Every structure is written in structure tokens, then in C-alpha cells.
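Researcher: Quick test of sequence recovery. C-alpha cells follow.
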């Protein structure tokens, strides 16, 4: 049956390729599963463009993919090609399976015939040209240049600035927070003081850093006025706020000390976030830690204080809070403290 399936995929792919205009890239028009079956049958890697409907950058790439003969010749010879709409059920399942976080579209990914990732990178209009697109494909099939080997290079001590930026960004795409933090700390430690607030490093803060202890982030928070003047107060606020939230909602937050939470809240105050909003962002993480430590009353008091400042708690909110609390404690005093919330469901 496997041989029949592979033969079917091969025939379907051949018919589709012959039916298409031989100008640009011939994208397979079946399912992703069938595309991998065709890759198996032809012993080729698979190029998967993850795009979004309505994305102008994706539309611009489509024009190049459809019309450029040299791009088409290279990709059709080298890969089985497939386009995956980012919000489709097929794409969601594929992204979840491989821990892919789409930061922007289009996202270009390359896979071997056995569905092992070879190379992945985002692309924008500045990369939408014949030379770059072909070079991207060449990197994907070169074992010394594809992103699959970068973790090994990093472990071996490679620390060129451009490499660290590209590797850390790829770690974000693949949800590898541990190496993202490590690469960016190595990068930050190499920066000269006068370069900490450079335009390049602000882009690094916007797109790559996920750690509020990174020296680049700490420098920004200690020089907010300078950053606001150079890059715009709103851009700085969004960038800094995002980094604090990344740090708060990551798994390592369960080991944070009270002092650490105090510092993070202070960062948000500096950005102009109001107190109730700050409480709302921290209450569930902090109370989870307190419950885990057996400090049920402290956790209940924290939730109680936050909820008393909420204008309205509806039935859905009350049900969520009750379920949250009762999965973490059976302490009668803690439950009694919050009973006024539970009754609202």
C-alpha cells in the first residue's frame, strides 16, 4: 500500500507539473501529506512557503515565484514545492507538530523527504529578488549553511554578531527559548557601550529578545528618555512591554523570587502602565507560585485584592477563578476568602 501511495503521489505531481505554465515555481496542489509523499517518491527535499491571505509581502513573493524563470528552474529541479496558508487547519497542525511560531509572513521553510527541518527563515520585500531566493534554496541544501546546523555551531562557540542575531531569531521561530536567551546574552555582552542604543540593537530588542534580564533590555529601561527620542515613545513602550510579558509568561517564571516580580512591575510602571493592569498581569503567575509553596492564604489574599478592584466580574470570569483556585488548593480558609467571587458564577 505504501508503494501504491508513493506511486499515486508521483503521478499526481507529474500531471500537475506538466499542466502548469513553465515560468516560475510549480507548487504542488494537493495536501501537505501528499507533498511529502511526492518528496519521498522523487527523493527530493520539500520547500514549504507559509503565507497569509492578504499579506502584501506574500503577494509580492507570489509574483516572483510565478514569473521568474530562473527561480522556477532552480526550485522545480531541486525541491517539491508547497504553499501553506498560515491559518488553515493543515498549517495549524503542522506548526504545532514542529513547534513553529510564525513571527511574520511569508515564512520560508525547507524539509527533507522524511519531514526533518533543514532550514527556516522569514523573508520581506528586501529579500524578494532572484539572487536572494535562489541563494536561500542553496543554503537549505548545503549541510554547512542550513539552519539545522546552527545549534551545533553555537555550542562550538561561534559568536559572530550576524550569526548570533540570525540564530536567536531562528530559535524564536522554533520556540527554543533556552538558546534564544543564551545567544542574545552572548550577543549583548559583546556590544560596546556606545552601541547599546544603536538602531540595529533596537531592532534586536523589537524582534528577538525575550528576556528582561538581557543587558540590552536593562540598558533601554535605564535610558528610556533617550530611546523615546530616538525611536518613538510608543515603539519603545510596546517593545519593552512585550519583553516583560515574554519573561512573565515563560516556564522559568515559576522560579522567580518576589524581588524579581517587584522589578518587573517597576519596569511596567516606568512605561506608564496603570496599577490595576499590572496586578492583572501578575496575579495568576504569582498566586500559582504561592499555592505551590503552600502559602494558600497569601495567594487567596492576592486574588481577593485584585478582584475587588475589578469593575465587574461576570459568570464566565467567576467560573474561571473558581476552577483556577480549586485545582490548586482545598484549604477551607482560602476558599472561604474567595467564596464571594465563586458565588457570581
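Model:
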Amino acid at each position: 500500500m505504501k508503494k501504491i501511495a508513493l506511486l499515486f503521489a508521483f503521478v499526481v505531481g507529474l500531471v500537475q507539473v506538466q499542466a502548469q505554465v513553465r515560468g516560475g515555481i510549480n507548487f504542488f496542489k494537493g495536501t501537505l501529506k501528499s507533498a511529502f509523499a511526492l518528496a519521498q517518491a522523487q527523493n527530493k527535499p520539500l520547500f514549504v512557503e507559509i503565507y497569509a491571505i492578504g499579506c502584501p509581502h506574500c503577494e509580492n513573493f507570489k509574483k516572483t515565484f510565478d514569473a521568474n524563470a530562473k527561480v522556477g528552474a532552480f526550485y522545480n529541479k531541486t525541491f517539491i514545492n508547497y504553499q501553506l496558508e498560515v491559518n488553515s487547519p493543515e498549517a495549524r497542525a503542522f506548526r504545532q507538530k514542529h513547534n513553529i511560531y510564525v513571527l511574520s509572513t511569508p515564512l520560508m521553510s525547507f524539509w527533507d523527504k522524511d519531514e526533518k527541518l533543514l532550514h527556516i527563515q522569514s523573508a520581506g520585500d528586501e529579500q524578494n529578488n532572484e539572487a536572494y531566493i535562489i541563494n536561500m534554496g542553496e543554503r537549505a541544501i548545503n549541510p554547512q549553511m542550513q539552519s539545522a546546523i546552527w545549534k551545533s555551531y553555537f555550542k562550538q562557540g561561534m559568536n559572530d554578531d550576524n550569526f548570533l542575531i540570525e540564530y536567536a531569531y531562528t530559535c524564536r521561530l522554533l520556540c527554543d527559548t533556552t538558546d534564544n536567551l543564551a545567544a542574545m546574552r552572548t550577543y549583548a555582552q559583546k556590544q560596546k557601550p556606545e552601541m547599546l542604543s544603536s538602531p540595529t540593537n533596537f531592532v534586536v530588542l523589537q524582534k528577538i529578545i525575550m528576556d528582561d534580564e538581557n543587558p540590552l533590555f536593562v540598558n533601554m529601561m535605564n535610558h528610556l528618555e533617550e530611546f523615546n527620542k530616538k525611536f518613538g515613545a510608543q515603539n519603545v513602550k510596546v517593545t519593552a512591554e512585550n519583553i516583560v510579558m515574554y519573561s512573565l509568561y515563560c516556564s522559568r517564571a515559576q522560579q522567580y523570587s518576589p524581588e524579581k516580580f517587584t522589578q518587573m512591575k517597576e519596569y511596567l510602571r516606568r512605561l506608564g502602565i496603570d496599577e490595576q493592569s499590572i496586578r492583572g498581569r501578575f496575579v495568576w503567575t504569582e498566586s500559582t507560585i504561592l499555592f505551590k509553596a503552600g502559602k494558600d492564604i497569601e495567594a487567596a489574599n492576592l486574588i481577593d485584592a485584585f478582584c475587588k478592584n475589578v469593575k465587574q466580574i461576570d459568570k464566565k470570569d467567576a467560573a474561571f477563578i473558581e476552577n483556577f483556585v480549586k485545582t490548586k488548593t482545598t484549604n477551607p480558609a482560602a476558599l472561604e476568602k474567595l467564596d464571594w467571587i465563586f458565588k457570581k458564577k
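The first strand starts at residue 46 and ends at 51.
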